[in-house]
Amino acid sequence: MKKREAPTGDYSAKKWITFSSLVVILSLICWGVWAGADKISDSGRQITIGLQDMPTSLDMRTTWNPNAQRILLQNVYQGLLIRNDQNEVSPGLASGWNESEGGLLYTFQLRKTYFSDGKRVVAQDVIWSIKTLVSEKYPGYLDFAGVSSFSDPNPYTLQIHLSHPNPELLWYLAGPSSIIIEPDKYNYQGLPVGAGPYVVSSQGPQSITLTRNPYYWSKPYYSTVVFRYFSSSSAEVSALKAGQIQGACDLTSSSGLPSSFTAYRGLSSKIVTLVFNDHPSSLMSDLKARQSMRLLIDKQQAIAAAGGLGVEVAGPVPMLDPGYEDLTSQFPYNRKEGQASMDYYYNKTFTLAYRNSLVEPVAQSIKSQLAQDGLTVNIYKLTADQWNNDVVSSTKYDMVLYISGGSHTLGTWVSGDTWWGWDSPAADTLYRQSITSPNYSTYTEGMAKTAQLVAEGQPADWLYQMQVLSAWSKGISGVPENLTDYCIPVFGLKG
Question: Which residues contact 160 (CB under 8 A, 6 or more apart)?
Answer without folding.
Answer: 105, 106, 108, 147, 150, 169
